[in-house]
Recover the amino acids of this structure.
């Protein structure tokens, strides 16, 4: 771990007490208001004003566990923008935390290798009944058994109230008090590392939430109306006085890797991070967080709605140095094929097996029939498959549906198993959303915990989002959409972990596929250059992967039973089928789908492949 990084501000424990430092150019004077556990009344420590609006001072009596806030020009104490913990929520005093008091057990941990990752996205509050970091620790062994090697936590920074997806964070250095204390998150990371699981955080730098954001009181320069976002003014990355703003975000990323040992990030909606500086904030934040983690290796992924691969290219190739991007096109094409979804952004997708094959072959579909023109920088052979994160469910694609219904709630189980096999066979990095591995019966709904008036606006806004959908033109029907503010909406979103037993066949399918992917000499390599993928019929996708003399063939059949002649472009590089051995089939009785037997047979001089209806099969072949 690098010894060079220290935060530019906040409350930092030292041998002489606690040093307080804050950037508040809006203020002429500043004090730290401090309350230690034994204090009857708070004490006030005057902070000395330095250059460019920085204030600092030391309280020799403060220590870890003391509560504090900053009083600007004599006004009421505010939470620290760099607060490491908000025990009473976004409006309460901050707590002094010594981030180096925790005794780590991961000294030999070297960090992430980006090849052959199996990502598991989870929400801490709904993963278990407890809804805490400790609750997630209790599920780690089940994730090991499944074959997961990287978990991605939806944002854990302090949000308003006790329940939230995490994208309304305002105390971005402080793990949510609803999930436990900061050391509980360290414990979770430590226990994950003990089981050889990496942990990355979903982090949000495109906006702060609508409640509890006190940054404007400290500095108007934190935000700018030059770069508006869908959520309001964006951060000031490139205007006057932007340097402390950039440092704020960079310090935040560095704090997670240095103080919590996390293994990287998923950067939310980076297309909304508008920065005209010579070095984009995404590039600088990534580089600085890698330095703070050194010698451990971390991974950084981006969600970017521009279909822009340059985020995930090296600096030498004109990129920004990240490791990958979320490639939702595979999901969208699959959703259209399986459910015939056509509204909203799905209107740009055809849902053909050809389009699905293109997404697998290229990593990131960029030529949309619905858009009429290509988007993003063209993909090249140098862009590895590991740089594209594929899914058939994630928090957005489930939770942003009116009733939070998962893919397997909408389609036949057999077809769901086929989609799962296709996801885990493709060379791109697969992501699972919590519960999909056992066909969770519970929805994942949108939930918040705002004060009454703001909450009312959130509920109205949420329901009005769907007014353009045919099914919700009628306001009375929109009233049936669950209220994000209702505690019951949150409770309904919690996984029912007994579904692991109820749907044991689905869980066994996922476990078998992941085990195959991680152990097989062909499938464990993320190599697009040795992959071909084609739509063979309107309901059949063929994917061929190879390494040296070894070949693997998957045929995913979403329709009725079919016998395919081995002929045409899709089969061009597939070796002779006389060596074909069946490795896996979703129609195996163990998995709970409709039984059937895939066959490879010679008919005279021609080979034929028979695939049962709504099933997928994987064969090994050798040249």
């Amino acid at each position: 771990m690098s010894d060079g990084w220290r935060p530019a501000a906040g409350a930092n424990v030292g041998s002489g007490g606690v040093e307080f430092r804050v950037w508040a150019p809006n203020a002429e004077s500043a004090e730290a208001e401090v309350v230690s556990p034994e204090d009857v009344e708070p004490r006030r420590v005057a902070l000395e004003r330095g250059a460019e609006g920085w204030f600092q001072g030391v309280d020799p009596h403060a220590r870890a566990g003391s509560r504090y806030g900053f009083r600007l020009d004599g006004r009421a104490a505010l939470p620290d923008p760099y607060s490491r913990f908000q025990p009473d929520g976004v409006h309460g005093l901050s707590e002094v935390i010594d981030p180096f008091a925790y005794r780590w057990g991961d000294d030999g941990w070297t960090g992430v290798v980006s090849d052959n990752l199996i990502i598991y996205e989870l929400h801490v509050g709904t993963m278990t009944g407890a809804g805490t970091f400790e609750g997630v620790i209790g599920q780690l062994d089940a994730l090991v058994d499944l074959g997961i090697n990287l978990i991605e936590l939806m944002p854990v920074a302090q949000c308003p109230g006790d329940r939230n997806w995490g994208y309304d964070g305002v105390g971005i250095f402080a793990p949510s008090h609803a999930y436990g204390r900061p050391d509980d998150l360290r414990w979770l990371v430590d226990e994950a590392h003990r089981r050889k699981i990496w942990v990355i955080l979903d982090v949000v730098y495109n906006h702060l939430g609508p409640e509890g954001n006190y940054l404007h009181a400290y500095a108007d320069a934190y935000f700018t109306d030059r770069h508006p976002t869908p959520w309001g003014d964006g951060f000031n990355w490139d205007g006057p006085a932007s340097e402390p703003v950039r440092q704020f975000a960079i310090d935040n990323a560095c704090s997670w890797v240095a103080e919590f040992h996390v293994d990287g990030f998923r950067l939310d909606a980076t297309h909304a991070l508008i920065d005209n500086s010579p070095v984009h904030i995404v590039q600088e934040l990534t580089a600085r967080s890698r330095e703070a983690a050194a010698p451990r290796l971390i991974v950084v992924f981006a969600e970017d709605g521009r279909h822009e691969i340059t985020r995930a290219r090296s600096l030498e190739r004109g990129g920004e140095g990240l490791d990958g991007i979320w490639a939702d096109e595979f999901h969208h094409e699959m959703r259209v094929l399986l459910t015939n979804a056509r509204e909203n952004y799905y209107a740009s997708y055809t849902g053909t097996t050809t389009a699905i094959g293109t997404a697998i072959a290229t990593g990131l579909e960029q030529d949309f029939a619905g858009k009429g023109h290509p988007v993003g920088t063209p993909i090249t052979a140098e862009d590895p498959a590991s740089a594209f994160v594929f899914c058939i469910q994630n928090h957005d694609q489930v939770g942003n549906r009116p009733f939070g219904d998962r893919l397997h709630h909408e389609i036949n189980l057999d077809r769901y198993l086929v989609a799962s096999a296709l996801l885990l066979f493709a060379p791109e990095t697969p992501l699972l959303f919590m519960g999909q591995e056992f066909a969770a019966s519970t929805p994942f709904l949108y939930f918040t915990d705002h004060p009454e008036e703001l909450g009312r606006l959130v509920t109205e806004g949420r329901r009005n989002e769907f007014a353009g959908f045919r099914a919700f033109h009628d306001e009375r029907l929109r009233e049936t959409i669950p209220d994000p503010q209702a505690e019951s909406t949150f409770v309904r979103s919690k996984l029912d972990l007994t579904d692991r037993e109820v749907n044991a066949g689905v869980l066994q399918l996922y476990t078998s596929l992941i085990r195959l992917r991680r152990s097989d000499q062909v499938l464990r390599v993320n190599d697009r250059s040795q992959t071909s993928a084609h739509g063979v019929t309107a309901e059949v996708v063929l994917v061929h992967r190879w390494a040296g003399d070894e070949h693997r063939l998957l045929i995913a059949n979403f329709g009725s039973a079919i016998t395919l002649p081995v002929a045409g472009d899709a089969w061009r590089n597939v070796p002779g089928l006389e060596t074909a051995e069946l490795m896996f089939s979703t129609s195996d009785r163990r998995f709970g789908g409709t039984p059937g037997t895939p066959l490879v047979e010679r008919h005279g001089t021609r080979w034929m492949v028979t695939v049962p209806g709504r099933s997928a099969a994987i064969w090994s072949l050798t040249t």
Notes: The CA atoms of residues 562 and 611 lie 6 Å apart. The radius of gyration is 26 Å. The chain has a mean pLDDT of 95. Residues 119-452+484-515 form a domain with the TIM Barrel fold (CATH 3.20.20.80).
